Amino acid sequence: MTDATDVIQCTHGGECGACALLGTSYEDQLQRKREMLGRALAKHPSLRRIRALPCVPSPLQDGYRNRAKMAVGLSRRGLRLGYFQSGTREIVDAPDCRVLVPEVLDTTRRIRRFLDTSRQIPSTLRHIDVRCGTNVARQHLTLVFRATEQQPFPVDALRRQCPSVTGIAVNLNPGTDAQVIRGAVRPLWGDREVWVEHAGYRLRVSPAAFFQVNLSLLPTIHTLMQEFFGHGDVLADLYAGVGTHGFALRRQFRRVLFSEGSRSACADLKSTIKARRVSDVSISAVAVERGLDRLREEAPDAVVLNPSRDGARETVLDAVAQCPVTKLAYLSCDPTTLSRDLNILHGHGFTVRSVQPIDMMPQTGQVEALALLTRPPQT
């Protein structure tokens, strides 16, 4: 663990740009993120009196990221395995990425050596996606090809070079946009997922499913939510993913509704429910925007919102407001869309009690925040 006054350096940070706060002391990083959140809130008159709380530090300031999504460049100039330079499609070679879990970093280095020496690598290989769960020695690798048909690949030889990889899958994504994995992920060998142990649950996380990249902060986030919600009747976990938040809060409610549109995440959810024989939960297995009638039928008195960077659609916020919700927790990874949505919720009678920045991704400009809102019972 590094000290708050330490400054972390990176050999390729200047080119890459993903870790925009490299070279800044950690204490200053936390203050900057609090200020960024404050500026976003201040753009809305209804939120100007809200003061962002001091940023919750990460227990790990490097070596925290449990997922490496790297672009592959195979050309006469040699192999490049790393990240796109900020604002471009130029691949910055990144053999020493400091934010990766050390065991995941080691695997990316082994993959690098393998790709650099093997003569059987298709030119259509465009990305690798390595992730781990709680057990860093059991990792999953997804090979992403820019192709529409299965590509030949020396899987057995790669396995021998990467002892921590216990499962390999393939994704065919012919698109050229920024989305790394699109469509079906087909297993090639071994495990089909990684597992995260949290809040008494063993959560299955499939290759395409979203999960927080910094596991060390999940207990803090859920403690804040648990203290805020107390006990209630029905909790709606919207944009639920694999159910991380709903399961952590389940014991405080009579029933939990998970709403999630990703097929792989819903399959993971169902796996946990079946393994634990949970009977007081249900799943709305369609995009949140398409499941609003189900949301109104369930009539939750508490809601967790954890949308993507784009935030929640206004139709979702309107539907939440039509329910007897008195407590709402909004976990966001973008201050701009969070502030926009808090302003809309304010118009529906919600009061923002606190906005807590959380440093989910040290060294980067990413600002995670947990907003807690209340509303009087509706008559």
What does this molecule look like?
With 379 residues, the chain is an alpha/beta fold. It has two domains: 34-59 and 214-374, 3-Layer(aba) Sandwich (Rossmann fold); 67-198, OB fold (Dihydrolipoamide Acetyltransferase, E2P), CATH 2.40.50.1070. Helix content is 28%, strand content 27%. The chain contains ten helices and 16 strands. The chain has helices at residues 13-16, 26-42, 102-117, 155-161, 218-229, 244-249, 263-276, 292-298, 314-322, 335-347, and strands at 67-75, 78-84, 91-93, 125-132, 139-145, 165-172, 185-190, 194-198, 201-205, 232-238, 253-259, 281-284, 302-305, 327-332, 351-358, 368-374. The relative contact order is 0.13. The model has no long low-confidence stretch (mean pLDDT 94).
Layout of strands and helices, then pairs:
Elements: H1 13-16, H2 26-42, E1 67-75, E2 78-84, E3 91-93, H3 102-117, E4 125-132, E5 139-145, H4 155-161, E6 165-172, E7 185-190, E8 194-198, E9 201-205, H5 218-229, E10 232-238, H6 244-249, E11 253-259, H7 263-276, E12 281-284, H8 292-298, E13 302-305, H9 314-322, E14 327-332, H10 335-347, E15 351-358, E16 368-374
Helix pairs in contact: 2-10, 8-9
